[in-house]
C-alpha cells in the first residue's frame, strides 16, 4: 500500500492469526496533520476552562460506553493484533475503571496545595499544559491509550493520538468511543500519521508535550527532539524483567506466576517475564513444575474463549523469537518444551 511516487503513504492492518487483510489506512499529509493539531489547540481554549464536574461526567460516560462496547472492542483486538478474547475483555474493563478513577479523584488531584512560607499566601497550583501528543504501542491498544487519556483529559489538556501503524482499526474505534461519550470536537483526536511525522507535530507551537510508550531507539529520538524544543516528554521504554526464584520460595506460586508472566499477551508485554533466575537449591523442583504448567497452555485462535495464548503480532516477530531459540540451543541451551514453529501464517 505504498505509492511508488511517495516515500510513505499509508499502512495495512492484517489479522496475525489468519494473515487476512483487515483494512488499508492512509496517513495524513504534513499539512493535514498541522490542521488537525491547530484544531486541538483551538479546542484547548475552551476545554481548559471546563468545570471539573463536566470533565468527571464525561469520563464516567466514557466508562459506560467502553463497557457497552466491550465485547465488540475485545473482538477487534483479537482480530487486529491477536490478543485472546478473554484478555481483551479484561483490558476493556480496566479502561473503564481508569476513566472512573480519574472522574472520582479529579477534585483531589487538581486541588491547590498550600505551602507555609514567610509570604502572606503560597500555594502550588495545577494547570493544564495544552495539546499533548501521545505515541502509543500496539500490545495493549486500548489500555495504553486510556491510561494516558483519562489522566490528560481530566487535567484539562487536549490530546492527539499517534497509534501504532498495525492497530489503526483500534485507533479509529477509540475515536468513536470518545465521540460517543460526548467529548467536544478537538479535545481528543486520532492522528493517523507515520512515525517520522511525529517530530514535526511536536514542533507545532500549540503542542506542549509528548508521552511515548515504545522502543528505546524511538524514545531516544523523540525525547531528544522534545529536549531541543524545551517541551516536556514522558517516556516509557522497553524492559528486561528478571523473575528471581530463591530457595525459600513457594514453588507452586512461583511457577504459576512465571507461567502467567511469560504467556500474557503472547509474552508481548514490557513487564512480562523475560528470563528466570533460579537458585540451585530449588532448581530441580521449580523447572519440572514450570514445564508442566507451560505444557497446559492452549495456543490457538484468539477468538476462542479457551485459548490461553494467541499468535504473535506478525510473522517477523515470530521469526525473530524462533531464531533466538535456535541461537540459544546452538550456544548450549536445552529445549524442555516446544522449540519448533507452530503451523499458521
Low-confidence stretches: 1-6
How can the largest sheet be summarized? 5 strands, parallel
Radius of gyration equals 23 Å
CATH overall fold name of the largest domain: Aldehyde Dehydrogenase, Chain A, domain 1
**Separation of termini?**
20 Å
Which CATH class of the largest domain?
Answer: Alpha Beta
* Domain count: 2
In round numbers, the mean pLDDT is 94
Tell me the structural class.
alpha/beta
Shape: globular
Looking at this structure, what is the CATH superfamily of the largest domain?
Answer: Aldehyde Dehydrogenase, Chain A, domain 1
Domain Aldehyde dehydrogenase: 13-340
Protein name: Aldehyde dehydrogenase domain-containing protein
Pfam families: Aldedh (PF00171)
Keywords: NADP, Oxidoreductase
Question: Your description of this structure?
Answer:
It holds the Pfam family Aldedh. Keywords: NADP, Oxidoreductase. It comes from Eutreptiella gymnastica. With 345 residues, the protein is of the alpha/beta class. The chain folds into 2 domains: 10-236, Aldehyde Dehydrogenase, Chain A, domain 1 (3-Layer(aba) Sandwich), CATH 3.40.605; 242-330, Aldehyde Dehydrogenase, Chain A, domain 2. It has 11 helices and 11 strands. The chain has helices spanning 30-47, 52-68, 70-81, 85-110, 143-154, 168-181, 198-203, 216-228, 251-263, 280-295, 315-330, and strands at 10-14, 21-26, 113-114, 123-124, 131-135, 158-162, 188-190, 207-213, 232-236, 242-245, 275-278. The strands form 4 sheets. Strands 7-6-5-8-9 form a 5-stranded parallel sheet, with helices on both faces. It has a two-stranded antiparallel sheet with strand order 1-2. Helix 3 packs across helix 4 (85-110) and helix 9 packs across helix 10 (280-295). The longest helix has 26 residues, at 85-110.
Amino acid at each position: 500500500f505504498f505509492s511508488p511516487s511517495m516515500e510513505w503513504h499509508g499502512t495495512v492492518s492484517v489479522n496475525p492469526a489468519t494473515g487476512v487483510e483487515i483494512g488499508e489506512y492512509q496517513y495524513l499529509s504534513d499539512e493535514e496533520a498541522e490542521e488537525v493539531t491547530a484544531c486541538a489547540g483551538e479546542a484547548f481554549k475552551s476545554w481548559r476552562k471546563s468545570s471539573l464536574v463536566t470533565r468527571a461526567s464525561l469520563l464516567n460516560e466514557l466508562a459506560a460506553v467502553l463497557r457497552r462496547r466491550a465485547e465488540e472492542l475485545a473482538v477487534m483486538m483479537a482480530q487486529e493484533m491477536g490478543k485472546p478474547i478473554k484478555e481483551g475483555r479484561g483490558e476493556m474493563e480496566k479502561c473503564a475503571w481508569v476513566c472512573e478513577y480519574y472522574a472520582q479523584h479529579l477534585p483531589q488531584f487538581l486541588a491547590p496545595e498550600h505551602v507555609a512560607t514567610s509570604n502572606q499566601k503560597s500555594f502550588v497550583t495545577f494547570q493544564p499544559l495544552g495539546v499533548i501528543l501521545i505515541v502509543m504501542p500496539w500490545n495493549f491498544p486500548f489500555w495504553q491509550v486510556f491510561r494516558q487519556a483519562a489522566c490528560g483529559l481530566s487535567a484539562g489538556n487536549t490530546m492527539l493520538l499517534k497509534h501504532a501503524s498495525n492497530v489503526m482499526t483500534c485507533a479509529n474505534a477509540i475515536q468513536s468511543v470518545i465521540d460517543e461519550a460526548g467529548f467536544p470536537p478537538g479535545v481528543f483526536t486520532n492522528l493517523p500519521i507515520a512515525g517520522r511525522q511525529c517530530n514535526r507535530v511536536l514542533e507545532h507551537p500549540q503542542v506542549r508535550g509528548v508521552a511515548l510508550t515504545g522502543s528505546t531507539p524511538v524514545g531516544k529520538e523523540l525525547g531528544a527532539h522534545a529536549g531541543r524544543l524545551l517541551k516536556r516528554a514522558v517516556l516509557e521504554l522497553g524492559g528486561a524483567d528478571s523473575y528471581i526464584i530463591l530457595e525459600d520460595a513457594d514453588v507452586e506460586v512461583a511457577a504459576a506466576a512465571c507461567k502467567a508472566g511469560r504467556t500474557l499477551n503472547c509474552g508481548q508485554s514490557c513487564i512480562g517475564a523475560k528470563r528466570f533466575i533460579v537458585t540451585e537449591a530449588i532448581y530441580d523442583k521449580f523447572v519440572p513444575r514450570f514445564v508442566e504448567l507451560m505444557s497446559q497452555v492452549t495456543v490457538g485462535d484468539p477468538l476462542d474463549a479457551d485459548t490461553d495464548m494467541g499468535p504473535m503480532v506478525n510473522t517477523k516477530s515470530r521469526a525473530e523469537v524462533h531464531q533466538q531459540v535456535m541461537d540459544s540451543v546452538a550456544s548450549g541451551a536445552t529445549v524442555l518444551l516446544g522449540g519448533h514453529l507452530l503451523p499458521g501464517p
